[in-house]
From TrEMBL:
Cross-referenced Pfam families: ABC-3 (PF00950), Fe_dep_repr_C (PF02742)
Alphabetized Gene3D superfamilies for the sequence: ABC transporter involved in vitamin B12 uptake, BtuC, Winged helix-like DNA-binding domain superfamily/Winged helix DNA-binding domain
Entry similarity comment: Belongs to the ABC-3 integral membrane protein family.
GO cellular component annotations of the record: ATP-binding cassette (ABC) transporter complex
UniProt GO MF annotations: DNA-binding transcription factor activity; protein dimerization activity; transition metal ion binding
UniProt superkingdom: Bacteria
Positions of region (Disordered): 501-525
BP GO annotations: response to zinc ion; transmembrane transport
Bilayer disposition of the protein: Multi-pass membrane protein
Gene responsible for this protein: mntB_2
Protein name listed in UniProt: Manganese transport system membrane protein MntB
Organism: Stieleria maiorica
């Protein structure tokens, strides 16, 4: 019975990644189509502004989806590779419990951008050169990483405090420097706002190539160091004991985060960059519990979210690309949270429901066995008594008094047991079938083995052992039962179905139970 249930659960909850990925993408496209159709039905605003929100042009749908425009192809390519790389490296930071590291690094890059602008102006260069600005952002981001590591390793402060300090201090310094730039006679900060809020629509081919090269470096680095980074994420102490360069690996991981963050400033800006690092990886956790599958899911969700968000922004020029990418990724996260096959809300609810019903059925069978045992004078474990008394009917009212359940709950457990051919109803009373009696004896034996172990080795009081055993008996693995049998057999305590070490309660042991007299216990001795 147990093996059949476990196999069914594995089949029902399997990791069918490819069909689910197709369904996820199809659902996103249907949602996009509904949004577009709704917007298309609205009368156009006659205000003469080309930037009006939800501006619709009949021919724009085909042009955008087929990517006929050169700029659309550049933008979609750039954000797609950025989303994949962000999801990949974000998986490691999430498992390493550094989900906010990207946020701290993106904010830490702002003073570097401002300093690069000021330095280029002083030396007569192009203040808004992307190369100079990215170099400044990278330098400032790496400095932020170094400060975080120093605070974490050299002080008693924890990492979350270090992240908060670096984020606030560096971002405050960046805002102050932007104020200085505003006061300069030869420069202004208007062109730097794109690094704060993103400027995907103005992405050039050179920018997309830079994003692609950087993303490729990050992806290759993650694949080459997959084994080492995986060990670092799950057990840093063990990695150090095995001789792995933990500090170097940590710095390497943070460097890849810096690279993705810096090139992502062009697409979504430093305010929203954290979303591409966290949301795809967090959504992937709902679909799988395997590391490499999680990385694939995160890369897929990051890529799809970036593509769909970029297309929505291209269809409606009034919607910024960075914000739409984040919103689409958030939709994917919500879908994953609800429908994920491993940790989704719905599947966890169904698993809990199945577990509770299985526990209720086991309690029902054990309660009936104990009633038969009492009618047998404590000798139900013997073959003759089993053959004689296994068909003894038990009334529903008696079961209600033993378990202190509601009638609806008891009827549901009885219906399930009847459906599984473990019980049959006769004139309103319950009778065990042969298969039901065998299962009830197995469950009772397992319960009492655990009780005897707790009494003998865990020093649990006899009056409390029933409640304590009931908390764990339903999840005992077969190998644990075998170990209990061997242990009790060595002590000469092993019998087919042990007599209960405590009096059998007339009511639920969690309530005000009134134990029977110790007649059955005396009979057993």
């Amino acid at each position: 019975m147990t093996s059949r249930i476990s196999v069914s659960a594995r089949i029902a909850c399997g990791d069918h990644g490819l069909p689910l990925a197709r369904g996820l993408l199809l659902l996103a496209l249907l949602t996009l189509s509904a949004t577009v159709c709704h917007a298309r039905g609205r009368p156009p605003e006659n205000d003469g502004s080309r930037q009006a929100a939800f501006q619709w042009v009949d021919s724009q749908w085909g042009r955008v989806l087929l990517m006929k425009d050169y700029n659309t192809r550049i933008v979609i390519f750039g954000v797609a590779v950025l989303g994949g790389a962000s999801g990949l490296v974000g998986s490691f930071t999430l498992l390493r419990k550094r989900a906010l590291m990207g946020d701290a690094l993106s904010h830490a890059s702002l003073p570097g951008i401002a300093i690069a602008f000021i330095a280029a102006n002083w030396f007569g260069g192009d203040e808004k050169s992307l190369l100079w600005l990215l170099v400044g952002a990278s330098t400032s981001g790496l400095l932020g990483v170094a400060v975080i590591l120093v605070i974490r390793n050299q002080t008693r402060l924890k990492e979350d405090a270090a992240l908060g300090i670096v984020l606030s201090v560096f971002f405050g310094a960046g805002v102050a420097l932007l104020g200085v730039i505003q006061q300069m006679d030869t420069g202004h900060a208007a062109g730097l706002e794109g690094f704060i809020y993103g400027k995907t629509a103005s992405m050039r081919a050179a920018d997309a190539q830079l994003i692609a090269v950087t993303s490729l470096v990050v992806i290759v680095g993650c694949l080459i160091l997959f084994k080492e980074l995986k060990l670092l994420c799950f057990d840093e102490g063990f990695a150090g004991a095995q001789g792995f360069p933990v500090v170097a690996l940590d710095v390497g991981l943070m460097s890849m985060v810096v690279l993705v963050t810096i090139v992502g400033l062009q697409a979504v800006g430093l305010v929203l960059m954290i979303a591409l690092l966290v949301i795809p990886a967090a959504a992937a956790r709902f679909w799988t519990e395997t590391m490499w599958r999680m990385m694939l899911w995160a890369a897929l969700l990051g890529t799809c979210g970036s593509i769909v968000g970029g297309l929505v922004s291209a269809l409606f020029p009034g919607l910024p690309s960075g914000a739409m990418i984040v919103l689409v990724c958030s939709i994917f996260f919500f879908i994953s949270m609800m429908l994920g096959t491993r940790r989704g809300v719905i599947i966890r609810f169904l698993r809990r429901l199945r577990l509770n019903r299985r526990i209720d059925r086991q309690h029902l069978l054990r309660a009936m066995y104990e009633q038969i045992e009492k009618h047998s004078g404590g000798q139900a474990r013997r073959d003759l008594a089993l053959r004689t008394n296994r068909r003894t009917p038990v009334t529903v009212d008696r079961l209600l008094s033993m378990r202190s359940w509601s009638r609806r709950r008891l009827c549901r457990a009885i219906d399930q047991a009847v459906e599984d051919e473990l019980l049959r109803m006769h004139e309103g009373d319950c009778k065990l079938t042969q298969a039901g009696f065998t299962e009830a004896a197995r469950l009772t034996r397992q319960h009492r083995l655990w009780e005897m172990y707790l009494i003998a080795y865990a020093d649990v009081a006899t009056a409390n052992v029933d409640r304590d055993a009931d908390k764990i008996e339903h999840v005992l693995a077969p190998e644990v039962i075998d170990q209990l049998e061997d242990l009790l057999d060595e002590q000469g305590m092993m019998i087919p179905v042990p007599i209960s070490p405590h009096g059998i309660a007339d009511e639920d042991p969690t309530g005000a139970a009134v134990n029977q007299s110790d007649t059955s216990r005396g009979a057993s001795t």
